[in-house]
TrEMBL record:
One Pfam family in the UniProt entry: Glyco_hydro_16
Source organism per UniProt: Momordica charantia
Glycan-bearing residues: N123
PANTHER family linked: XYLOGLUCAN ENDOTRANSGLUCOSYLASE/HYDROLASE PROTEIN 8-RELATED (PTHR31062)
Gene3D superfamilies the record matches: 2.60.120.200
Protein encoded by which gene: LOC111007154
Stated role: Catalyzes xyloglucan endohydrolysis (XEH) and/or endotransglycosylation (XET). Cleaves and religates xyloglucan polymers, an essential constituent of the primary cell wall, and thereby participates in cell wall construction of growing tissues.
Keyword Transferase: yes
Family membership: Belongs to the glycosyl hydrolase 16 family.
SUPFAM superfamilies according to UniProt: Concanavalin A-like lectins/glucanases (SSF49899)
Cellular component, GO annotation: apoplast
Domain GH16: 35-229
Protein known as: Xyloglucan endotransglucosylase/hydrolase
GO annotation, biological process: cell wall biogenesis; cell wall organization; xyloglucan metabolic process
């Protein structure tokens, strides 16, 4: 079904419900997204493992990762970043992808690393992908939220984004926020704001846990499995020789969620979230992490 971008002629006292806002957001954001042209994968990324299973094609406009019984594959950004907005179009492994994980994440180095994760957990044909998100600070994670998607992520490319600034981390799918992790260091929760990170992508076998907790194993007769990537757009502070190229005027450095996107975030979480660590009291018998006690923004 085509998406209409028409708007009401009379806007006075017009307050569309969250579903309408949810569907119209690409129209509202389209002029913003079109202003940023993605760079060539040759310029921005290196395929770092997989023995030829990762490939850059179409003059640097397409990157594919493949997985077979012998190995998966992966890439990393040439540059390191400290804060930014990162957009990447991904088309996930189609059909029976059970046991596979396509990952897209930011990560620092060392034993006390920081990390911001998108992981897409494979499925039996016809079953929905699970979008697994997590935030690590100083080597500690355990902040998972999981979602279903409202479309088939294997039929076409969709844009998955991180916004990472001093105030919060926001996960987006096609410009729609699905998760916010706020900086509440004052409450005792560490926040990733001191270590530079690279962007990584990988396709690998995780059939010990990825699909139904490891009950469904990878069907190697379906290999090789392939995920495809386009339009990597890092709008970020680049770190080089310990110095940052970041300009204080970068709009995303202070970007917050306005009331409309806050409503959309709540709508997505109400309808598509399937796991939230902040609701898992059995996992935290001594009390939920401090950030889980934050009130919901209006």
């Amino acid at each position: 079904m085509a998406l209409s971008c028409s708007f009401p002629k009379k806007l006075n006292n017009y307050s569309p419900d969250p579903l309408v806002l949810f569907l119209l957001l690409p129209c509202l954001m389209g002029f913003v997204l079109k202003t940023a042209e993605a760079g060539s994968f040759y310029q921005e990324l290196d395929v770092t493992w997989g023995d030829g299973r990762g490939k850059i094609m179409e003059n640097g406009n397409l990157l594919t990762l493949s997985l077979d019984r012998a190995s998966g594959s992966g890439f990393q950004s040439k540059k390191q970043y400290l804060f930014g907005r990162f957009d990447l179009k991904i088309k996930l492994v189609p059909a029976n992808s059970a046991g596979t994980v396509t990952a897209y994440y930011l990560r620092s180095q060392g034993s006390s690393w920081d990390e911001i994760d998108f992981e897409f957990l494979g499925n039996l044909s016809g079953e929905p992908y699970i979008v697994h998100t997590n935030v690590y600070t100083q080597g500690q994670g355990n902040r998972e939220q999981q979602f279903y998607l409202w479309f088939d992520p294997t039929a076409d490319f969709h844009t998955y984004s991180f916004l990472w600034n001093p105030a919060h981390i926001v996960f987006y799918v096609d410009g729609r926020p699905i998760r916010e992790f706020r900086n509440v260091e004052s409450m005792g929760t560490p926040y990733p704001n001191k270590q530079e990170m690279r962007l990584y992508g990988s396709l690998w076998n995780a059939d010990d846990w990825a699909t139904r907790g490891g009950l469904v194993k990878t069907d190697w007769t379906k290999a090789p499995f392939t995920a495809s990537f386009r339009s990597y757009n890092p709008n970020a502070c680049v770190l080089s020789n310990g110095a940052s190229s970041c300009r204080n005027a970068a709009p995303w450095l202070s970007q917050e969620l306005d009331s409309a996107t806050q409503r959309m975030l709540r709508w997505v979480q109400k309808n598509y979230m399937i796991y939230n660590y902040c609701a898992d009291k059995r996992r935290f018998p001594q009390g939920l992490p401090p950030e889980c006690t934050l009130p919901t923004k209006p």
